Structures are given as C-alpha cells and as structure tokens.
Fold this sequence. Notes:
Distance between the termini: 64 Å
Keywords: Membrane, Transmembrane, Transmembrane helix
Strand order of the largest sheet: 2-1-3
Largest sheet: 3 strands, antiparallel
InterPro entries: Trp_biosyn_TM_oprn/chp (IPR019051), Trp_synth-assoc_CHP (IPR011746)
Pfam family, one: Trp_oprn_chp
Number of helices: 10
Radius of gyration: 33 Å
Strand content: 5-15%
Transmembrane segments: 25-43, 70-89, 96-116, 144-164
Oligomer: single chain
Region (Disordered): 1-21, 178-213
Number of strands: 3
Structural class: mainly alpha
Amino acid sequence: MEGVTAVPSPRSEPAGPSRTGRTSLAAALLSGALGAAVALLATRQEWSEGTATVAGGAFPLTAKGSDVTGVPAALAVVGLAALVAVFAVRRAGRLAVSAVLALSGAGTVAAALLGASDSTALDEKAAQASGDASATVGALSHTAWPYVAAVGGLLLLAAGLLALRYGRLWPAMSGRYERAGAPRPRRSAAPADPDRPEELWKALDRGEDPTGA
Length: 213
C-alpha cells in the first residue's frame, strides 16, 4: 500500500507550473489584445473641445486623440506586435520582447495622461480658423477618452509584466517549426522484382544469371 500512495506524487509536481503557464498566457493575451484595441479606439475619439473667436462670434473646435498626440496609437501597435513576437523567440529574446511590450504600455499611459490636459492641437486650429497666428482656444474642456487610452496602456503594461514573469513557461512557435522541420528517417527501398523485364536486363549487365535460383 505504501508503494501505491507514493505513485501520484511525482505526477503532481509539473501540474503547478503547467497550470500557471496556461493561466498567465491566457491573461497576457487577453490583456494585451484588449489593451491595444482600447488604446487605438480611444485615440480616434474626441479628447478636447473649445471655441475660437471668428468675426466677432464663437466658432466651435474639437480635437481627436490623434490630433493631440500620435504616441498612444503608435505604441499600441508596437505593443500588439511585441505580444505576437513573444511566441517567436526564446530565452533572452523573449525577455527583450516582453520588456518592449511592458514599455509600450507604460509609454501609452504617460502619453495619454499628458494629452489629457494638452491644448496645443486646439490652439493651432483656433489660429487657422481666425487667421491670427497668436490666437488661442477659449472655453477649453477635455473628455474622458484620454483616460480610457491610459487604461489601455495599463492593460498592455500588465501583459508585458506577465510575459516577463511567466514567459519562460509559455510555448514558442520556433519549437514547433523545429520539430516539423526535423529530418525524417529515410524509407528503405522496396526489394526489386526479378520478374520485371528491366530487372532482368540489369542482372544481365552485371553478369548475373537472372534465371538462377
């Protein structure tokens, strides 16, 4: 009975790391993909609004996230590419790509928060609308979309941190390709049929008697 109770113990040891790897992988994929999508969506929305004085009246102006700063959208794309590249590399390469993913998220957060109070884009539009290079926007207000972009950056950052911490437990695409590309054992040639005419001629050329036993 003692021998029977000792059997399950070695099998249960790899279950922990394997389960942790699958859980962290799913969390990183979901967090990274969702974070990139949220950040890209937020940059296409209205971040700020105001007015410009034109011919004695107030002319409404709006600025999208892409007008304010292009950094969050660019870093979201970089982060998404890094999330995919994590599975194409191993060891030091995986750590480097994971770091890029985390830095992309942190940069997205910083750029979004800086853009939440920026008025440069609307000032430029006010100058164009009024024809006065020194004109600035009035009645400036901001929406919540910059903070939504920051949330997307936080999700990318979380995916990067998960990759840095648990990436060594994740599978790699290169391993799959290596197994698929491994040389296959050569098949042995089928034995020659002595009754075939071409085999008879080959035997005669070799000086053999094809009719011999």
